[in-house]
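Record type: monomer structure entry
Structure origin: computed from sequence
Chain ID: A
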Amino acid sequence: MAQRVQSAQEFLQDSFAPLVAALCSEEAERITRRNQLGFCELLRPFCRLTSEVHMRDPNNQLHIIKNLKIAVNNIITQPPQLGAIRKLLSDVVTVSQPAEGLVANVITAGDYDLNISDRSVKASVPWYSSWKDTLMGLNTSTFYSATTPWFEAYRESLLQSMPASDHEFLNHYVACMLVVSSSEPEPVEQFLKLSQEQHRIQHSSEYSYPKWFIPNTLKYYVLLHDVSAGEEQRADSVYEEMKQRYGTQGCYLLKINSLGSNRGADEQIPDPWSQYLQKYNIQTQEPYEDGPYTVIPNKNADNFIPLDGLGNDPKEDGLSNNFKTHPLQFDHTSDSSCFDGTDYIKSNTLLNESKKSSTGTPHGTCLTLTDHDRIRQFIQEFTFRGLLPHIEKTIRQLNDQLISRKGLSRSLFSATKKWFSGSKVPEKSINELKNTSGLLYPPEAPELQIRKMADLCFLVQHYDLAYSCYHTAKKDFLNDQAMLYAAGALEMAAVSAFLQPGAPRPYPAHYMDTAIQTYRDICKNMMLAERCVLLSAEILKSQSKYSEAAALLIRLTSEDSDLRSALLLEQAAHCFINMKSPMVRKFAFHMILAGHRYSKAGQKKHALRCYCQAMQVYKGKGWSLAEDHINFTIGRQSFTLRQLDNAVSAFRHILINDSKQTAAQQGAFLREYLYVYRNVSQLSPDGPLPQLPLPYINSSATRVFFGHDRRPAEGEKQAATHISLDQEYDSEFSQQWKELEEQVVAAANKGTTLSNFQPTQYCLNRYSDNSRFPLGVVEEQITVEVAFRNPLKVPLLLTDLSLLWKFQPKDFNSKNGEMKDLEACGKDMIEAEIISEFSVNSEETKMARLKLFPHQTGELHILGVVYNLGTIQGTTVLDGIDPSDGLHMGKYISNGMSVRGRQDLEIQGPRLNNTKEEKTSIQYGPDRRLDPIITEEMPLLEVFFINFPTGLLCGEIRKTHVEFMNVSNCPLTGLKVVSKRPEFFTFGGNCAILTPLSPSASEHCSAYKTVVTHSTSVCSIMTFAASSDFGIGTGNQPDVIDVPLPDSVLLPGASVQLPMWLRGPDEEGVHEINFLFYYESIRKHSKMCHRVLRHTAVICTSRSLTVQASVYRSNTLEDEKGEGDNMLVFVDVENINTSEAGVKEFHIVQVSSNSKNWKLQESINLSEDKDIKLANREKGKLCLKATRCKNPAENYTFADVVFGNEQIISSTSPCADFFFRSLYSELKRTRTQQNMQTLQGAAKQSLDSAVSLIQKCSEVDLNIIVLWKAYVVEDNKQLILEGQHHVVLHTLGKEAFSLPQKQGFKKILGNSDWEDLEQESPEMGLLNFFRPESASVPARSSLDQLSNLIKTSLHYPETFNHSFHQKSLCIVPVTLLLSNCSQADVDVIIDLRHKATSPETLEIHGSFTWLGQTQYKLHLKSQEVSSLQLKACFVHAGIYNLGTPRVFAKLSDQVTLFETSQQNSMPALIIVNDI
């Protein structure tokens, strides 16, 4: 229960005060009316005695009375009507509202800060943390001051307006004041008339009201003198006559109006009457204009009240309830169905008129402070000399009568203990008693005399004697089954027991419970039951029995009075919050119930306040249905009270959270919100557009795209993919594009990397770098993608949707960037596209792409979106078009309820985490994606790819065309393209021939430049080319390619088509190849230097051929032409194509070499058929002879070995282009691997200087190009595909592959495929004629290279005839040639003593011996060839192997000796015949 200023004892004492009637003459009333007051109103502020009063009880014991209060009322001969009482109580509650601007009454309950006032403040979460610890001292806290003045005013008015009853005497008049003015002609005669009038009212049968305590009522004669009128002597003489007639203790001269009506403007006299006037209008039967009141609500009471939980946190979860079945459903008809609200509107009108009339009306304007003291002294004299002696005398008389009638020997007071200490008669329960509430006692009945004595003792605070009398009367009444009398005695006995000083006995709460039940159930008197509940609840609360008090208050709630039920439920809620362990949820629930009953009673403001206080508990706890009900009711009540901002905020709160309501209920909420919102907007139609709550906007997901809508592909044309809003952001790809742009910008700036380089950003999102102002181009559209989410289950319809922007024109070409003086309207600067209809289905997230078209340069700021929010009528759509299909003009039917508003796009930048200060605090950087700078006009390029393939064979060459189109009004220049895969495409070299030469090549649309050959021998044809012709020269970046535009300029609106050759990547699979086109404007700009266009080509490659090659030194030192230093090149070609591609077979049409030092000379082909065909999984081996070029030059030598009838000129585009690009990629990959090895361990990889010198002996610079054709059957047509594979040979004896490495090929094919390939082709490992290269450590491989320093060759006759019969020894001359293959001097030792020890060798070849010197030592200079003449001796005929000499070699300046490897020499067989 809410706290009050008075204690429970003070409240109970003031609730029952001695009643004194006042009967005034008309002249006396006129004198008091000069102060805007009646006589009773004049006395009211001074009716409490400021000093103690003494009286004696029937036992002549002195009794002290403290703070006695009397009540002086006009005589009213008609009892107040029940309807009038109800109206008074309703008006009192309506007028008593929480004062605005005061300190909020806040209770801290756990984690709740509950504001018990018209304002609702924060209620934090989590809930229930440290619950009990926080609340232990709640009730004793000095800060606890939650008051409910409307309840106190209601309670006080109820108690004072209760009609007098025959079963009790507390509301009966004890005395009567007769007031006459001294200015009347015959005051004494007037007193006599008034006395007779009072006697007639009391004793005449025509008056049954008011009630009088005893027949001999005290009459007190008051002569009222107006000091300002003079005639003071006459007043004194009349007063002397009165004292002679009535005695000094029965009359009084009261002098007032000392000022007259001429009070000074600066004189301030207190006005103690205002607070009392409103409460007594019903009792005094004074109209409002006669007795105006000034206790009115603050003039700002109707203003906006901030409601907690409505607009403070839009992220709170709170949703709705089904109001069709909810017990707290707001009743639209309740205002007119309950008696509390019947005259609500009329009473409000009267109250408002009363407020107007009472505003600024002073009271007591003719009274001075001396007059105040005189009135106060008058009340004390009346009480001391008149009232209390009369009451004391009456108590003695009643006591004596009771003693005489009961035959008692001593007074009732002295027998009290005996009565209560004896055996008690068991009382019957209420259910056992008959309904005898209609029983009436005669006025002289002894039971009533006991009750009358008890009431008199109670009124003068003699609670012990009062309790004794009440207890005695209670037993008598119960014995007679007079239940109304018994209930009254029980009620006052309980109150008397509580008020007894020293608390001799506990408060008998069961007395009160019995009395309440009797009043309510038997007597059917709810007003008495309500009084009983109010008194008992106050007593229980003072004893901290809040649970019992709450139960008592709730028990009396019923359907007969909504106002009473609302007040009692509210007080019960306060009891729950004031318990030792506060029950916050019960508090909130009962506040909801109270708010509901307030609403039914027509107390809209109190209903709104209750719901707001309950919201503090329910919000943020996940009780969304409860929150929705509360917010809905708050919105309704606020709208009724014309607090439209509150109403909008409440309905907004229902809509902005994830709702658990049904679709129909959500639709009702939305329509209610739109209706309220429209009323708000109509009040200020010219005001700023307010914020709309729906649909949600995910601001961080907003994307901004700079660029026009690209033209779609036409036929065989495929437009460059560039960037679009349909593409998902990929950070890895974004970094790749940034690197490409940085690379091409560096190339455009002659290899200089710009320090302030910033990549071009066409699409800005949450992942991009938005710290800089983005750049837009004038006359080029800006598209803003806004993510709308509809949290409701009903569709939303947005109409006239467009962007909200602010623009500041600037001229960036001027020196200071001055602002332009513009008189044009907004559309001439920025044109915004308007989407007429945009629907968002239930619980759908949908993107809206809104466009702006800047027409001038300057700074643009995109603020948000503006639109009309409405709903789609029903869930059906016209014309069978589903809402999810997109926007359809006029396809949706709006229900006519739409409001216009805006939503701002506020994007929070990334959190800063660089410096220590930023890491220790929470700071966010800027996000400027919505603040673009509009720059001057720039060229705009569009690129189309014509007949661009989607699938290729690995290594396949395909010719296509690219169209470049300038769609702007500015010429562009400096067109370049950069890619991470430059080996994939080429535009041709400087000597590119656009058309093939041979007829067959033209017929098959060959991509190569070919010539017809008539040579029947397979020999090479040489051409020469420089790498710089194909962009691989020194100082260039091969990744950056200049596009050969005519005149290097593309004019506005012009287009040009250029050929482009493609080569399928060597790896099988899907490849994404990025092209970045770079171009500039002819005129340099300050803001934007260049532009780029992106394209991602997706190529799916399938297996074709794999090429494996190796090179070895020839065994012969000279060929047939006498040329030395030959090498043999072995090329293994395998068809690994699968049948999926439809390739029938591959033809190897040409093998070309490329080197500065070597050239292919001829093919050693034992087959007569020159055509080499490979079907699926077939493998072929080619053996080619290579010779050293005679005149090495800077240019590369291309040698073509042709196997068909047409020679492909390998030194021209596109063959040479792809070769050089592939070579560059291989070099780049090799450098990367070397750098990695250097970083991993440079010291371990260092070689001996001698070893590094010898390594050069095994290095070759020979590159092989295998050109092929494939025959494909597709759609019953045979197509011819062309392609080429490259193999780079670095080292003698080391196999090289067309793929980067064998493991890489295994990785691409997949382990399973590679294993299958190995299982199906076991011959791959068997066709090697030579020992596989050793897989030893690098140092060991260097030793193997050292063993190849010397190349040896034996010259001898293959057949030698000798007659062993004539001469037993056969001596054959043999010449041993030694060639130094290295660039250093070598010392050689030849040992002829070596003999074959293998039995197989002996068995096959037989044994022989060398004659003459068996060991030689020679010194060979670089590239020197030396010969030795040897003699071999045979003893019989046979076949012998002469290759037995062992050759050792070492560098001249080294000690270590190495034996020359014999594996490179073929067996030297000689046949010795016997003749």
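Annotation 1: The longest helix spans residues 369-406.
Annotation 2: The longest strand covers residues 1259-1274.
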